[in-house]
Every structure is written in structure tokens, then in C-alpha cells.
């Protein structure tokens, strides 16, 4: 295994430069020459784009939103407490804290600090970034806390005593997982499942754990019992326990690739029984029930169940060979399943209908036989985006409801299924939305497919093609883009007179698995055709014109905007490319890239490279062609998408004399920023770049 596949950025060595790629030296993440190039680019950006009064004002407005103590504290109930992770101007790395539901209902809840990440970082001399915590039921006295250095995906896991609020040192028997991609998962007071880097052969070619083990307190990690060992070309191996009282079960999960998984039930004697569903299906379980969400059609005993459907059956009966399946949801031409949430007595379905949420409540038959009762969720908002999750699925039928749209501050309510919601919290108004309106339109793609998009504009907008317009997209990994309130976007773009557009292109999940699968691998071009069709539709409607139209996207969305830059430079006045994939010949050899071949294909296969090269921006770049101004941003500490992607295309364009702005944050991981100061700076770069080029 090469260093570039371990998920670690520090010390990664680049291969020798070739005639085909003379910029391979920029893949050496912390190489002296590469970092010297980065520092030179960063200095140019900070002395120009980031040196103006307008930039300082924009960053301050963005920082005020991020630091606001009036934001809704997102909470999770564990036992008698509601836990929240919070950042503000005084706690830039964050506080993990807790309160009670009674206190949370008040305007000023009383918070008890459990872990101060800023204080911890200062005392230990580390740039800790919070990655989450898992609390052991039912005593709720112990937590496994994950912390990352600088925001990378690789992190450490440490045991925290929730009574003393002190870490339990390994010398005192505390669980500690050294830095790696992976995790620990509670089994009981003295046992965890561990899947992490334990030396040669323990990680997959994607840089994730290949071996799942059971680890007992007070014993060396290397002596932990091996439960399952995947193949080197698997994506991720893990193990976990479902702690539902009366239905405690243990599992081993094998991710073969994106959209291909196996789930095994782990018996007391460590034998494994596979849950016999298609590898492309998603499996869920609660108490006596097993849920199967299909990505592909599935024929069982002569009956074919459609892709995108949700099926239910008895868990034990299915494991024993029974195939009595009940269809809980089946998509039609406009609907898809956005989520399913169990409460103690019900299953709440969140359905997207032309990218608008609807909530439905299903109640299983009490005796396990018969029909599931159906009703609509009372009090659920009818517009915008609605998310729902259980407060405590083992203890009650209460759910959290979060409602949001582009112009209305987000609200958080609590509701008992079947009753009206109780509004608990509202996000403050961060920008003046008066005179703004939201519309949904459909563009026609090259193959005739109707592609929805949301348009946020002033009601009195003159359709003369002069409005600075920001078009945003993603189009990958079955991720849906739905309306949401953003104080930063409102202050830095909408309030200044800009138009904002979100394109729901193929590759996403807005219409379920089929919408995603239509743009996989050799059909990737459809995502880019969809996006360019939305751009053309905006011009045809008179909303904007080429000189005033900009695009922005990150990660897979960075690949999207990179392709807009290289395939359709004639459509845009400015392009923002954030933490992107761009070199699709090398992507599967860099960091987690091998895990994405189900999405893009294998560039080492000559037949697949034939179509992959058609959407590889690094290879599509033509030094003799005219391109719009472009901003590239990335992070040195990104150990998911290699910073070499952004570096190499930016360098090629700089060498060709193109209009290139580049900034690489030293911290931040794939999110691009490790704290609110960095986040506001990176966001301000994008907004000010677009304003200066498009207005």
C-alpha cells in the first residue's frame, strides 16, 4: 500500500513527473516546492481579492452569522439530557454541552459544558476539530469522542467520563484509538468494536478500515479479536451493536463500494449470517422489523419490486428464509423517498414530490400481521424543506421537525406523532428578504429530460439579462439539493441584489436512485448537460447573461464546475471551483478516490478511460482556448479529495496566462475550514470574487 492511499496527507510523496503530466510534483502535499507554490498563490490572493474594504465587510457579515449566539442549537436527546455542539466568537473550536428539554424550551437554556474543545486544543497544543461523540446506553456515563487534527477525515477516538467530564487515560483502562480513518463503537461498558489502521494490510485501497475487531478494556489493541476481514479492494469494513432494549443485535457491515454493501448479523459465537438482500439495497431495522430500500429492481418469488421502493418484513422471519414483503412506499414519476424515521410506535416517511417534502406516518400492525395504517403528518409545513428525526425512538413517539426555505428563517419544533407540533426555536432573521421571491422552473436538457431548478430573485427583477446570478449545483452520489435558509448567502449575495439558482441535475437523488443512476460513469455527461441547460434557460428567460452568470460547486460539485469551466467557457462570466476532483486519470490513486469508482469509473481500464477523459477538466484544458476568470480553493489538510487536483489545473492555467485566483487553506479538511474565522474567509473569497467579476 502506498502512502497516498493511507488517508494521511503529511509526508505524501508524489510520483515522478512524466511527459503526460509534468505537474505531478504538486501532489506531494507538504513537499517544499509544492508548498512554496501554494504560499505564492495565497499571497497573491490575500494581497488583492482579500485586501479590499469590501472583502473585509463581507467577511465580517459572514462571520457574524456563523458566530451568532441566536442560532438554533441543534440537539440530540440521550437519556435525560439534550446534547449540542456549539461554536461562536468565544468558542471558535466549539463546546460540547448539554441541557434538559425543560430548560431547552426556555429562551435562555442553562447549558452544562461537557467538553471545551478550545481549552483542550490549547492545553494539548493540537488544532483539534470536533468529529462527534457516541454515548453508551443505558447508563449514559461514558462517551467515545472523535477529534481530528486540523479537520482531516483521519481522527483519534478517546473515552470520556460524562460524570467527571475527564478523558479516561489508556493507562487507567480508557479506550483510545490512534489517528486513522476508522472508529470505535460501543458494545458494553468494557467492550468496543474497533475498525482502524493497525498496521500493514489493515486498510483498504481506498484508505479505510479493512478489518473489524472486538476489543476488551485493558487489553492491547493488537490482541483484539478479528471478527471480519474484508478484501483490499473493498471500501470500508465496520461493526456495531443496535442497543434497542429487547432487540439487542450485533452486525458487521461490509461496504464493497459506493452503492454496494453487505450486512451480516453477528451471533454470540461470532458466526455471521448475511442479510440476503441485493448489495445495492439499503437495510434498516427496528425492534422486530427489517426495512429494505431498493436502488435497483428486485424480483422475489415471482414479484418484482421497483427501484426506489421501501419494503418491510419481519426481521427474524426474513433471516429464517421467509419472504413476506410489504411495500411501504413506491415512487412514481415525481416522487422519491428522502428518508424514513422510526419512533417507538410509528415509521415516518419523508417523501420528495418534485423536490418538495411531504411527511407520512405509517403504523405497523400490532401483531406483526395485516396492513400498515397510513396518515399524513399533522402540522407539517407544506412548502420548503422539512426534515424529521426521532427524539428517542426507543422511548417515545416524539420527533424533531426542522422546516426551512430560502427566505424564511429555519424553525425547530417538537411533535408527538398525530398531534400538532410545538415550536421551540427559530433562527434569527439574518438578511432583509422583503421583495424577494422563490420560483421553481424546469429546463430541458439535451435529451429532452425536464430538469428542475429553484430561482431566488427580486419580485421586480428586470428581465434584461443584467442581474449578477450565482448558479449552484452538485449532481452526484444520490445527494438531493433542497431549499434552505442561509444567512451568509442572504447577506453576501441576495441582499446585495444578486440572483441565486440551485439546479437539481441528474446524479443527485431528487427523484430517487433512477435520477442518480442516469448520470453514472459513461452517462456522466448528462449531469453536465443538465447543468448547462439550466444556465441556458436562465439566459433565455432574461434573468441574466453570460457576462453576469457565475457558477459555484465543491467536491463532486467542484468537478461539475470544473467541467463547466472547460466544456462550456462560453456560458459563464466567472467560475468557483472548491475542494474539487479535476484530474480524473489520477483520482482513484489519490486518498479516498478509489472508493468513488462506482460513481465515475476506473481510469486504469482503457475502455473506461475513453469516457472518463471526456469529463476530466485537467485533461480537457486547452491552453489556446479562452476561459472565464476562475477561483480555485482547497485545503492542505483535505485527506478525502487530494489538494493536488486544484493545484495542478490552477498551475496549468497560470502557466497559460489565464485569469486564475487560488487559495489553499492549511487547515479545514474536506470542509475547507476548521473554525468560523477560516469559514468566513473562504466564503468571502467566493462571494467577492463573483461580485467583482459579474456585477
From TrEMBL:
<feature type="compositionally biased region" description="Low complexity">
    <location>
        <begin position="1"/>
        <end position="17"/>
    </location>
</feature>
<keyword id="KW-0378">Hydrolase</keyword>
<dbReference type="GO" id="GO:0006508">
    <property type="term" value="P:proteolysis"/>
</dbReference>
<feature type="domain" description="Peptidase S9A N-terminal">
    <location>
        <begin position="14"/>
        <end position="412"/>
    </location>
</feature>
<dbReference type="InterPro" id="IPR001375">
    <property type="entry name" value="Peptidase_S9_cat"/>
</dbReference>
<keyword id="KW-0645">Protease</keyword>
<feature type="region of interest" description="Disordered">
    <location>
        <begin position="1"/>
        <end position="22"/>
    </location>
</feature>
<dbReference type="InterPro" id="IPR029058">
    <property type="entry name" value="AB_hydrolase_fold"/>
</dbReference>
<dbReference type="InterPro" id="IPR023302">
    <property type="entry name" value="Pept_S9A_N"/>
</dbReference>
<dbReference type="GO" id="GO:0005829">
    <property type="term" value="C:cytosol"/>
</dbReference>
<protein>
    <submittedName>
        <fullName>Serine protease, S9A family peptidase</fullName>
    </submittedName>
</protein>
<feature type="domain" description="Peptidase S9 prolyl oligopeptidase catalytic">
    <location>
        <begin position="493"/>
        <end position="692"/>
    </location>
</feature>
<dbReference type="InterPro" id="IPR002470">
    <property type="entry name" value="Peptidase_S9A"/>
</dbReference>
<dbReference type="GO" id="GO:0004252">
    <property type="term" value="F:serine-type endopeptidase activity"/>
</dbReference>
<dbReference type="Pfam" id="PF02897">
    <property type="entry name" value="Peptidase_S9_N"/>
</dbReference>
<dbReference type="GO" id="GO:0070012">
    <property type="term" value="F:oligopeptidase activity"/>
</dbReference>
<dbReference type="Pfam" id="PF00326">
    <property type="entry name" value="Peptidase_S9"/>
</dbReference>
<keyword id="KW-0720">Serine protease</keyword>
<dbReference type="InterPro" id="IPR051167">
    <property type="entry name" value="Prolyl_oligopep/macrocyclase"/>
</dbReference>
Amino acid at each position: 500500500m502506498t502512502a497516498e492511499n493511507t488517508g494521511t496527507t503529511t509526508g505524501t510523496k508524489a510520483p515522478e513527473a512524466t511527459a503526460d503530466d509534468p505537474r505531478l510534483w504538486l501532489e506531494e502535499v507538504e513537499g517544499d516546492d509544492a508548498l512554496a507554490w501554494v504560499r505564492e498563490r495565497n499571497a497573491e490572493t490575500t494581497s488583492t481579492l482579500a485586501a479590499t474594504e469590501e472583502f473585509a465587510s463581507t467577511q465580517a457579515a459572514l462571520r457574524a452569522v456563523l458566530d451568532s449566539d441566536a442560532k438554533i442549537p441543534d440537539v440530540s436527546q440521550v437519556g435525560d439530557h439534550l446534547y449540542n455542539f456549539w461554536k461562536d466568537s468565544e468558542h471558535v473550536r466549539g463546546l460540547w454541552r448539554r441541557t434538559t428539554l425543560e430548560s431547552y424550551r426556555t429562551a435562555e437554556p442553562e447549558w452544562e459544558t461537557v467538553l471545551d474543545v478550545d481549552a483542550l486544543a490549547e492545553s494539548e497544543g493540537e488544532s483539534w476539530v470536533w468529529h462527534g461523540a457516541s454515548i453508551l446506553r443505558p447508563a449514559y456515563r461514558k462517551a467515545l469522542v472523535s477529534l481530528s487534527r486540523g479537520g482531516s477525515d483521519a481522527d483519534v477516538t478517546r473515552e470520556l467520563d460524562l460524570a467527571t467530564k475527564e478523558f479516561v487515560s489508556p493507562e487507567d483502562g480508557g479506550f483510545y484509538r490512534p489517528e486513522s480513518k476508522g472508529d470505535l463503537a460501543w458494545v458494553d461498558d468494557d467492550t468496543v468494536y474497533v475498525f482502524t489502521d493497525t498496521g500493514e494490510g489493515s486498510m483498504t485501497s481506498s484508505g479505510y478500515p479493512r478489518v473489524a475487531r472486538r476489543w476488551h478494556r485493558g487489553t492491547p489493541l493488537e490482541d483484539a479479536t478479528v471478527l471480519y476481514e474484508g478484501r483490499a479492494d473493498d471500501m470500508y469494513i465496520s461493526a456495531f451493536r443496535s442497543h434497542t432494549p429487547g432487540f439487542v443485535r450485533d452486525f458487521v457491515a461490509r461496504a464493497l463500494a459506493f452503492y454496494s454493501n453487505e450486512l451480516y448479523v453477528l451471533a454470540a459465537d461470532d458466526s455471521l449470517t448475511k442479510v440476503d438482500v441485493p448489495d445495492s439495497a439499503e437495510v434498516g431495522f427496528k425492534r422486530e422489523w427489517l426495512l429494505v430500500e431498493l436502488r435497483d429492481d428486485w424480483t422475489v418469488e415471482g414479484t418484482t419490486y421497483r427501484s426506489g421502493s421501501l419494503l418491510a418484513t419481519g426481521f427474524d422471519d426474513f433471516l429464517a428464509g421467509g419472504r413476506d414483503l410489504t411495500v411501504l412506499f413506491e415512487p412514481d414519476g415525481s416522487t422519491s423517498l428522502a428518508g424514513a424515521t422510526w419512533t417507538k410506535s410509528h415509521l415516518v416517511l419523508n417523501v420528495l414530490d418534485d423536490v418538495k417534502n411531504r411527511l407520512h406516518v405509517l403504523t405497523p400492525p400490532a401483531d406483526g400481521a395485516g396492513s400498515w395504517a397510513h396518515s399524513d403528518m399533522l402540522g407539517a409545513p407544506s412548502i420548503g424543506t422539512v426534515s424529521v428525526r426521532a427524539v428517542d425512538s426507543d422511548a417515545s413517539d416524539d420527533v424533531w421537525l426542522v422546516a426551512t426555505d430560502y427566505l424564511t428563517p429555519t424553525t425547530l419544533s417538537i411533535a408527538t406523532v398525530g398531534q400538532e407540533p410545538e415550536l421551540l426555536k427559530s433562527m434569527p432573521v439574518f438578511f432583509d428578504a422583503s421583495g424577494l421571491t422563490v420560483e421553481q422552473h424546469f429546463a430541458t436538457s439535451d435529451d429532452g429530460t425536464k430538469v428542475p431548478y429553484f430561482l431566488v430573485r427580486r419580485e421586480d427583477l428586470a428581465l434584461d439579462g443584467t442581474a449578477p446570478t450565482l448558479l449552484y449545483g452538485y449532481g452526484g452520489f444520490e445527494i438531493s439539493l433542497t431549499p434552505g435558509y442561509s444567512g451568509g448567502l442572504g447577506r453576501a449575495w441576495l441582499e446585495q441584489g444578486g440572483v441565486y439558482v440551485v439546479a437539481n441535475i441528474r446524479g443527485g437523488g431528487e427523484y430517487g436512485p433512477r435520477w442518480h443512476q442516469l448520470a453514472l460513469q459513461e452517462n456522466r455527461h448528462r449531469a453536465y448537460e443538465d447543468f448547462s441547460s439550466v444556465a441556458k434557460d436562465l439566459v433565455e428567460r432574461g434573468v441574466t447573461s453570460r457576462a453576469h452568470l457565475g457558477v459555484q460547486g465543491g467536491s463532486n460539485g467542484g468537478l461539475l464546475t470544473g467541467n463547466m469551466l472547460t466544456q462550456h467557457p462560453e456560458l459563464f462570466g466567472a467560475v468557483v471551483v472548491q475542494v474539487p476532483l479535476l484530474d480524473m486519470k489520477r483520482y482513484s490513486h489519490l486518498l479516498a478516490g478509489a472508493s468513488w469508482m462506482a460513481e465515475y469509473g476506473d481510469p486504469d481500464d482503457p475502455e473506461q478511460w475513453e469516457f472518463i477523459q471526456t469529463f476530466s477538466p485537467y485533461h480537457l484544458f486547452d491552453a489556446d482556448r479562452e476561459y472565464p476568470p476562475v477561483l480555485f480553493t482547497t485545503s492542505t489538510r483535505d485527506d478525502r479529495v487530494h489538494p493536488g487536483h486544484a493545484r495542478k489545473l490552477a498551475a496549468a492555467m497560470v502557466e497559460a496566462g489565464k485569469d486564475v485566483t487560488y487559495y489553499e487553506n492549511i487547515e479545514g479538511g474536506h470542509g475547507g475550514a476548521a473554525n468560523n474565522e477560516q469559514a468566513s474567509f473562504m466564503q468571502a473569497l467566493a462571494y467577492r470574487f463573483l461580485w467583482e467579476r459579474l456585477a
